[in-house]
Write a structure and sequence with these properties.
heterodimer; A: alpha/beta; Rossmann fold; 6-stranded mixed beta sheet; B: mainly alpha; ABC transporter involved in vitamin B12 uptake, BtuC; two-stranded antiparallel sheet; about 75% helix
């Protein structure tokens, strides 16, 4: 049978970052096809190309063996490609029926909207899906599962032949996943091709007939799932070389500095307990959406927590108070430096001194000279490349911006430092400097908790590796036990021998 | 309150209870304004029975009609999560233009004046719409700018001149004071426009798309809605309505100088918000907005009748505004909670 949709050697880069080097996939009508791979393997970029959100730099997209060019999401829809995202974007104020038919409402002869006909069609669609959603209720307040049903009903209403589900089950409960799968199977039976992007291998086996595996922006494997095991899939997802980028020096492990006990935030993460000792770098690994950053944010007090304790140097921290966490000696370098780590329009000196203003204050005032002195001190130590301290941080490169964020926290001389994706989107040279710096800090006795989506970084830097899967800690691996295999198995929710 | 909302949700089996709840809530929103209106009228009438005479009702409606007309255009803009602050200036500009036209040629047919006013309004609206939709500048800033620009043009043109009713032909003044079947022309025009706009917003794709844009701009793009074109159209219509209102202003008051309509934009937005149009777009109705205008102007008249010092009027309007927004917020939270519960039960 000829494939319904073919993406052939698509590439896409954003500036200097090559997000997709070889995006290739073939979808057959009436089949569910799984797309799996590690974080950053290029899955999302591929999906967005199919959705018409990104235009590939090169490569071809064929539907029914005819070449297709998608300039925008509406083109994809008109071509019969529907994408259901993990969190759909609906119109909260409008009814379910209007959400499904917006811009395509059935009309009467006078070009008026035929509300009765629209509702009848929605009821019919919902019957086909086996989900009794009221067409008249507004989308506001729908559960994520129901929002996805609305998107699927929309796909059905324009008779989509290719239905892409981008990690649809990440936020669903067990019963909701079952319902979604029933719907997906119904779509298949009607001849649609389903592309199922997921981190959950058990679901991949439950739903799909074929699989495509990506790694580092490239297509690595395609074939029928029958006969393959979990281990087969994982070993094809991983397999990068460890290089010399990660110079973690051994350091003496001291007392417990940060202790997290049974930390829980409902619906986000559950029962997370771990310790970080002085002089130690603990890696927190897991797939995107596993709840790693959320744990860090709750531990530092940015987000509230529903249960559990956080202690620093034996003193318990009050919930939801970053001020208390800072006073106790904690520092937090967030994942998104542009949004959360820096104030982009402020100068380098201002940003660097932002967390130390209390210390710099003389009387009521803060002197620019003091700010400069602090910034200059750290700029030298971190080898910051810049023109003037008064330049806004927005003119710096990503790597140098990250150094300013680090300087901001290091100026406070923290005893516990949480770094979330410390080297995301920065060049190789600066990356090595950041790693050297983290290693030095551990050597000086700082307790470092490092969240990273890059397995080599975790494996190279961490003395111990904690792995999260869907809001729970699934493994704690020593440096010797941790390998791409063991970490990936734990991150995809497979039981590991090492975890016991 | 919470128990009744809860009770309705619980009582409704599967299917329709959610939509009924929301329908009730929306109707309650418009009924609420009517109830407030009734309260004001009853209290005032108890003090002064003449407040409820036919002539008085006619005056109440007449007083509300120009602001009420402006709420029609403003609602189109506000449901898209935008705002048009320039309506008062556009009104001032076309009001003075109308006066000047008739002073120059007393024999001019009134229809020509109406069309000219609308045309100038369309041009002003097109400027707002183009800068907002094409230039992607926030409409708050754009229309704040054009508020001053249009008013400035008005000042430059009028200088210190004032046009008086004595200078204007009867044909125009009749439009302001005449009646059709006992209903003042101005009131009739406003009612017709409100009805047309309400129908269009409810029953045509482009109308629904305005709500969609305000409800979730990103989703609107994904749904293939021509967002820029729709925004442009909303501003052009708002300008057209303001232009028309300018002509009617001159017809009604006769006296026009460069300050005509100053500050109307805030009255209009107050009426729209009191009338239940969400200031962040996506929901609300033209009928509610027009009722909001009627409520505010009736309060103004009641205060005079009740001999409340007039400086209280602004404080009352302000309190009402905050009350209306608080009520909306409360209602939205209640509905959201009720709908969420229903959603959970369906899934479970």
């Amino acid at each position: 049978m000829a494939p319904l949709l073919v993406l052939d050697h698509a590439t896409k880069s954003f500036g200097a970052v090559q997000a997709l080097e070889d995006g290739s996939i073939e979808l057959l009508a009436g089949e569910a096809h799984a797309l799996i791979g590690e974080n950053g393997a290029g899955k999302s970029t591929l999906v967005k190309i199919l959705a018409g959100v990104y235009r590939p730099d090169s490569g071809r997209l064929l539907l029914d063996a005819r070449e297709l060019r998608l300039a925008n999401p509406a083109d994809a829809r008109d071509a019969g490609i529907a994408v259901i995202y993990q969190e759909p974007t609906l119109f909260p104020d409008l009814s379910v029926a209007e959400n499904i038919f917006m811009g395509r409402q059935p009309l009467t002869s006078g070009r008026r909207i035929d509300g009765g006909e629209m509702r009848r069609q929605v009821v019919a669609l919902m019957e086909r899906l086996g989900v009794p959603l009221d067409p008249n209720r507004p989308a506001r307040g729908l559960s994520i599962a129901d929002q996805q049903i609305v998107e699927i009903a929309k796909a059905l209403s324009f008779e989509a032949r290719v239905i892409v589900m981008d990690e649809p089950t990440a936020a669903l409960s067990g019963a909701e996943v079952e319902r979604l799968f029933t719907v997906a199977r119904t779509l298949q039976e009607h001849g649609a091709a389903v592309l199922f992007v997921s981190h959950r291998l058990d679901e991949v086996f439950a739903l799909c007939q074929r699989v495509t595996i990506m790694r580092d922006g490239r297509h690595r494997f395609s074939g029928p799932l029958a006969g393959l095991t979990n281990d087969d899939l994982v070993s094809r997802m991983v397999g990068r070389e460890l290089d010399a980028l990660y110079p973690k020096q051994p350091a003496t492990r001291g007392e417990v500095a940060l202790s997290v006990r049974r930390l829980t935030r409902e619906g986000v993460f559950t029962d997370v307990s771990f310790d970080v000792h002085h002089g130690e770098i603990v890696g927190l690994a897991g797939l995107v959406g596993a709840g790693r950053s959320e744990v860090a944010r709750a531990a530092f007090g940015i987000d509230r927590r529903d249960a559990g304790q956080v202690t620093v140097e034996g003193r318990e921290l009050p919930a939801a108070s970053p001020t208390a966490a800072m006073a106790a000696g904690m520092g937090f370098v967030p994942e998104d430096r542009r949004e959360q780590g820096l104030i982009m329009d402020l100068s380098i000196a201002r940003n660097a001194s932002l967390a130390s203003l209390r210390r710099l204050r003389r009387g009521l005032l803060i002197r620019a000279a003091d700010e400069q002195r602090l910034a200059a001190d750290w700029a030298t130590r971190l080898r910051l490349k810049f023109a003037h301290f008064s330049d806004p941080v927005s003119v710096l490169s990503g790597g140098n911006q990250q150094k300013v964020v680090l300087a901001k926290w290091l100026a406070r001389k923290p005893t516990v430092l949480i770094v979330d994706e410390p080297t995301r989107g920065i060049d190789v040279g600066t990356k090595a400097e950041v790693h050297r710096l983290l290693s030095d800090l551990a050597g000086q006795g700082v307790a470092v908790l490092m969240i990273s989506s890059e397995l080599p970084e975790i494996l190279g830097m961490a003395d111990r590796v904690l792995v999260m899967h869907e809001g729970r800690l699934t493994a704690e691996l020593s440096r010797d036990e941790a390998s791409e295999q063991t970490v990936m198995l734990a991150a995809t929710g497979q039981p590991t021998q090492a975890a016991s | 309150m919470s128990t009744t909302v809860q009770g309705q949700v619980e009582a409704g089996a599967a299917g329709r209870s959610g939509s009924r709840l929301v329908e009730v809530a929306f109707r309650v929103r418009e009924l609420g304004i009517l109830a407030a209106l009734a309260l004001v009228v009853i209290v005032t009438t108890a003090v002064n029975p003449r407040f409820l005479s036919v002539q008085s009702i006619r005056d109440l409606l007449l007083n509300a009609s120009i602001i009420g007309l402006l709420t029609v255009g403003q609602t189109l803009v506000v449901v898209t999560r935008n705002v048009d602050l320039s309506v008062g200036s556009v009104l001032g500009l076309t009001a003075f233009m109308t006066g000047t036209l008739f002073v120059g040629r007393p024999g001019l047919p009134v229809v020509v004046a109406l069309l000219a006013g609308i045309l100038v309004g369309v041009v002003c609206g097109a400027v707002n719409g183009a800068v907002t939709a094409v230039g992607k500048v926030p409409s708050l800033v754009v229309t704040l700018g054009t508020l001053y620009v249009f008013r400035g043009i008005d000042y430059a043109w009028a200088g210190g001149r004032q046009i008086n009713a004595a200078d204007l032909p009867d044909s125009l003044l009749t439009l302001g004071s005449g009646r059709i079947l006992g209903v003042p022309y101005l009131v009739a025009i406003t009612v017709v426009l409100v009805a047309v706009a309400a129908y269009a917003l409810r029953s045509y794709r482009s109308g629904r798309e305005l709500y969609a844009i305000g409800s979730n701009p990103d989703a609107a793009v994904l749904a293939g809605i021509p967002v820029g074109r729709r925004l442009f159209a909303a501003f052009v219509l708002s300008g057209a309505v303001a232009g028309l209102a300018g002509v009617l202003f001159t017809a009604r008051y006769g006296t026009v100088d460069a300050t005509a309509g100053t500050g109307f934009e805030l009255q209009v937005i107050s009426a729209v918000v009191v009338g239940g149009v969400a200031i962040f777009g996506g929901s609300g109705s033209v009928v509610g907005a027009a009722l909001g205008a009627l409520l505010l102007s009736t309060i103004g008249s009641a205060i005079v009748v009740l001999r409340v010092p007039s400086f209280w009027q602004q404080a009352i309007v302000g309190a009402l505004l905050i009350g209306a927004i608080a009520l909306d917020r409360l209602l939205a939270l209640r509905i959201a909670a009720a709908l969420r519960q229903r959603s959970v039960r369906n899934a479970g």
